[in-house]
Structures are given as structure tokens and as C-alpha cells.
Amino acid sequence: MPVATLLPFTATPNRKSVSPTSFRLTEKFILLLVFSAFITLCFGAIFFLPDSSKLLSGVFFHSSAVETNTRTGSDSGDPGSAGSDDRVLAKIRKDHEKALLEAKDTLQKWPDEIKQDILNEKEKVAKESAAQGGNDVNTLPFVEYHRPPGATGHEPQDPETKERRDKIKEMMKHAWGSYRRYAWGSNELRPISKQGHSSNLFGSIKGATIVDALDTLYIMEMFEEFDAATDWVEKNLDFNVNAEVSVFEVNIRFVGGLLSAYYLSGKEVYRRKAVELGEKLLPAFKTPTGIPWALLNLKSGIGRNWPWASGGSSILAEYGTLHLEFMHLSKLSGNPDFAQKVMNIRKVLNRLDKPQGLYPNYLNPNSGQWGQHHVSVGGLGDSFYEYLLKAWLMSDRTDEEAKKMYYDALQAIETNLMRKSSSGLTYIAEWKGGLLEHKMGHLTCFAGGMIALGADGAASEKTGHQMEQAAEIARTCHESYARTALKLGPEAFRFDGGVEAIATRQNEKYFILRPEVIETYMYMWRFTHDPKYREWGWEAVQALEQHCKVEGGYSGVRDVYASTPNHDDVQQSFYLAETLKYLYLLFSDDDHLPFDHWVFNTEAHPLPVIKKDVTDIPNEVE
Ligand code: DMJ
């Protein structure tokens, strides 16, 4: 501010012509006062001016966008300069004019056009925030990678076991090679028609076989194939799809497969992809209770349940089979949401009364009440029980709540569902509102392995009993194979109407390369080293080779009681993820993916135990 402008307020006007020498003492004194006031003001102004310029810019340039421009814009030499202020004012004027023109335009539009504009704008914002999400995934927190022990194995000493193990690897080569040749990038292979196949479980996500097979390729040391798969994942695996997927299937196969591939190989791309997909699944939990929907549109985030599920219910085996993967997602992303979502599922379940201590297959996500009282350790229920036990094991046996829930549930299953046939075969029946259906699914056969895995953690007086139960279930499931023409197990077998371990309904006679029986042989072998489990596994290998192997891969069969196979023309992705992996481990030594360091998710994807003390984890030398 110019100093001269202050003078008229302090000097007396009629003294203008008077010489300074003729001033009286009082006048001199006044002059001195005025002068010293002037000097004080000059100094004050030095401190005062910058603040006032800020104040001014606050009054005139209050738009944050403009503030940003004045700080960082290409033409902002000196932000406080008059030239810069003019430019900013000009910009504001221009923006206002533009806004006025747009408003005028909008007023001339039809309502439908306006609606479309709003939709386009929304889409733009959604895209931007998706890109923002992608950035988050790209900047995941640093996680020190430790490869848990036993990621790869070594050759068995015994020549026969080695030969058998080699044979399983050869089967994997045929399954993978055929998929690569005829269906690369599709979800699954049609081995007879030699083309790709996709079920609607994965929406338009592609590459289910690639992701499901990654860890099997790794543990079998098929590294050239693993690298080709990694390359495909890096370049092509895309979750930005406008399609509805099964939350459960995508979780166990894709999230599980990616997590295992990360833990086995240490490749960051797998951690990134797993977290990216996990984040896309989170909207499924937007229900009044937090019990997730079964189906989710990955683009809109809108979920719903299977239309056939009792009164709009979610399914026990679906919402109850997220825990292992989601705990690891929180660990690898630093985002606690994943863990909170699955812990909340438990909370809801623990508030509910359980009929006879059993968990019904249906639960309404809106009301938080059970649907129909159907209970099964096979389809619709199975992996919920498996995940209770494995949540405890994966927490390095610290998750006491999961432990209690598992052993309580197993007790209720034993009391209400486990039965013995007249010839002494133990089976697990299904329960419908208090009535037993004496049928056991191929899926239920996984329970032999689960019970064996949990036996050692049970109260000491129960360990032996549970090992016996597990062995009996393994025997029953073996019988369901042995009593067919093709020596492969039916989808479900019954213990009524004079039959035992045999399918009686045409629509239960198929075999789709499922793993559960072989899974149980693998666990039983590890815990007992009884050679019969390897023999039973080898019988299954021979049957697979004889009846399911075709030139273009491996196919399921429509009727295991027919003397010649009628192929269904699908090579399921779980054949590579589970069936062949469990067979390979059955003929491997116990230190290959040892149980004290790894748990398998329900799709046989190994996930490391989260050790209480991280220093426990030795770094394996490759
Ligand atoms: C797999 O996808 C999983 O094992 C799931 O838990 C049940 N069914 C299939 C294989 O049969």
C-alpha cells in the first residue's frame, strides 16, 4: 500500500506552507508522533500484506479447482501476481458461461435424453472409480514373501510308487495339453468335440481351467506350463465383466487358485489379481444381515439368490465357504474388510438356534432366519463343515470359536445323520425336517478325509473313534466305486429298497471326474500309511484311463453301471485342480505340502497356515 496515502489523515492541512524551522515545540512533538506512527505502519505493512493477499484470494478464488490451477497450472508463474489473477478470473468467467450454455442446452432436451445423459455421466464416474480401485490394487502394501516348506516334493524311493506318481503327471500332461491345444482361454474343455466350454457359474470371466490348474502345474514341477499360464493370467485374466457369477465358485476356484499360485511361486501378479477379484466380490455382502448373495453381477454389484433356494435363501455351503480365502485376502491386502465380512457370518450363525444342533442348508439373508430344515454333509452343506475345521487349523489352532463349532457340528452329524447299513457300511444320510433320506452323495465322501484331518484335534477320548469313522466312510465310498461296471463312483448312492452303496435313479448314475473319494484316500494314506488307500487310488487311476481318457483329454461319463462309457464331453476344471492333485499327493511323500504348514481349500488349493509366530516360517531353499 503506498505510504503517501496515509499522510492527509495525520497532518494538519493549513500547515502546508509553513517552514519546518518555524514550528513550535508542540507542533514539533505532534510531527514526531505522526512520523513515528508512519514508520510503525510501514513495518506493520510488511507483515500484514501477504495475509491480506491470501484473504483476497480466499474471497475471490474460492473454487478448489481454481486454487489447484493457480498452484500447479502450466501458466502460473507467480500465483499472487496481477497477471495470474486476471487469468484465473477469466477462467471463472469462461466456466460460468459454459455452465450457462449447458444448462440452456439441457432445458431444450427431452426427459429421455436428460436421463440418458445422467446414465452416461454415472458410467463415467463408475469407470473412474474402478480405475481408482485398480490403482489401489497396484499399490498393495509391501508383504515379505516366505515360501512355506514342501511347495515341491522329491521322487519317492519305492520304484512302484515313483512309477505311479509319474503316471499321474503324465495324466496331467494329457489333460493340460489337450486344454491348451483345443480350448486355451476358455473356462473348460470339451474333450470329445475338442473345443472350449463354459458354464454360467463364471459369468464371462474366462480361463477357469488355467487358474484352477496353476498350483497343480507348480507342485508337479511343470514349470514351462506354469509360465505359460502365468503369462496368460498377466495378459488376459479380466474381472471387469458385466456378468453375474456364482460367488462361491469364483471364490473357491479363482480366488483360491490365485492365492495358492502366489504362495507357491511368490509372483506378485497372483496376489494382485486375487485381491482385485476379492474386492469385486465384496458387494455380495450388502444384505441386511451380511449373509452374502449366491449370485453377483460384478459390474453393477447387484446380488441375488438362486431362484430355486427355499424362499430366497442363501446356501450354507456357499456363504460358509469363503472364510479361508477371505482371511488370506485381508492378510495380503492389509484390508480388514474381508476378514470382518466372514467373521460376521459366524456371528449371525451363532445367534441362531440349531435344530438338534444341525445347520440347515438354507438361510434367508434378509430376515436372518433358517429356510427349509434340510441338512446335508453333501451338496449344499459340505464345505461349510470343512471350513470350520480348516479355519481353526489355518489359524495355527488359535481360532477356538471355529474349533468348537466344528466339533459340535460333527457330534450332531454323528447323532442324527450317520448310520450303518445292514451289512455294516457306515454312511452319512440327509435330513429333511427330521426325516432321514438314506442317500449319500459322491460329494459327501470328502467327509472321510475331513474327519481324519480333525481327529487329532478332538478330545483325546474321541480321536480313535473319529479315525475309525473316517476309515469306515472311506470304505463305503470305495464300495460305491467297486459296485459299478466302470469302477467309478455314481453321483449319489442309496441304502434303501434292498440296495447298499448303489445308485438307483438314472439321474444319479453319472460320474463327472469328481475328486472327493480320492481326496479321502489321500488323507487316510497320510494319517495311517495303510497301503490299501494307495491301491484304491490306483484302481481309480486305471478306471479313469480306461473309461474317461479320450484323444482330446478326459471326459465324465453318463452312467457308471453301463458296460461301455457314454461320455458327457466335459473336462471339469476341478479334475486338474483336485482329482489329479490329490492322486499325485497320494503317491508322494508326506513332506510334500505337509499338513502342519498347509491347508487345502475346498477346491484343493493349498493355503499356508498363518503361523502365530512368523519367525516360525523357514524360508525354503529352492
Ligand atoms: C469342487 O468344485 C469343490 O470340491 C466343491 O467344494 C464341491 N464340488 C466340486 C468337485 O466335485
TrEMBL record:
Binding-site positions, Ca(2+): 602
Principal localisation: membrane
EC class: hydrolase
Protein name as it appears in the record: alpha-1,2-Mannosidase
Active-site annotation: 249, 382, 491, 516
One GO process term, biological-process aspect: carbohydrate metabolic process
Gene3D superfamilies registered for this protein in UniProt: 1.50.10.10
